[in-house]
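Predict the holo structure. Ligand: adenosine-5'-triphosphate.
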Amino acid sequence: MSATEALIDVRNVTRHYQRGPDEIHALDDLTLSIPTGHFVALMGPSGSGKSTLLNLISGIDRPSSGDVVVAGQTLNDLSEDELAKWRARHVGLIFQFFNLIPVLSARENVALPLLLTDLSKAEQGERARTALRVVGLEDRMDHFPATLSGGEQQRVAIARAVVTDPDLIVADEPTGDLDARNAEAILDLLRALKTSFGKTIVMVTHDPRALRFVDDAHHLDKGVLLDDEAAARASEALQASLGSAPPTEAVES
Ligand SMILES: Nc1ncnc2c1ncn2[C@@H]1O[C@H](COP(=O)(O)OP(=O)(O)OP(=O)(O)O)[C@@H](O)[C@H]1O
Ligand SMILES: [Mg+2]
C-alpha cells in the first residue's frame, strides 16, 4: 500500500457502455486515491459518472480497463463469487430510497446482511440491536418501515450498512429523498461513523450542505475529475448557493 495509506486506489479506470451503435464513456482514464478514514463526496452534474465510479469502488461493477484497489485487494483479481464474498465482508451500501424490506421489522432488516455469516440467530439479533443503537433507533427496532419517517428509514438503512462492521461505506445520494433537517441529521450520522468508528465513507451527492461534513469533495464532469483548482471553484459555487437558504435552525421541526 502507498505511504498515504489509501483505502481506495482507482488507477486509470475507464468504463465504457455500449448503447446500440454508440459507445458511452461513463468514466475516462480516471485516477483517484481516497485515504483510510476519510469522508469523501463525489459531486457533479447528472450523467457525469458518479454512480458508475461508486459501483466500481464497491465491487458491484467492473472497469473496462484500469484497476480498482480497495484495502490492498485488486478487485479485478477476484472471480464473481469471490467478489460477492469480498463485498459482504468489506462494504456497506446505502441508497437514496433506503431499500428496506416492508414486511420485516427494523431489526430484521438490519440483521439481513448477517444471514451470510456463521453467527447464531441470537448473536445476529444482538448485533442488529447494537447497530440500531448506534443510529439512535434502538427503541424502534420492532417497527416496520412504513411506520417510520423517511429520516428514520434511512437511519435503519445505515444500521444495516454498518452491522457487518465494514471498512468502507458507500452511499449514493443518501439525502436525496429527505427534507433539509433529516438530510443534515443523516450527514451528521455519517460523519460520526467516520469520527467514532474510523469508517471510510464515499458518498455521491448533489447536496451542497454535504460540503460542511466531508473531508474532501471530488467533482466529476463527463467521466473525468476536475482538477483541484476547478474543484475548489465548484465547491465554492455550491456553497454560495446555500447562502440564500434560511439557516437550519429556522427550518420547522
Ligand atoms: N448500464 C448502463 N448502460 C448504458 N449506459 C449507462 C449505464 N449506466 C450508466 N450509463 C451512462 O453512463 C453515464 C454516467 O452515468 P452515471 O449513472 O454514473 O451518472 P451519475 O453521475 O450518477 O448521474 P445522476 O446524478 O443522474 O445519478 C451516463 O451517460 C449514463 O447514461
Ligand atoms: Mg447516479
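The beta strands are 6-19, 22-35, 39-43, 65-70, 73-74, 91-94, 168-172, 200-204, 216-221, 224-225. The longest helix spans residues 180-197.
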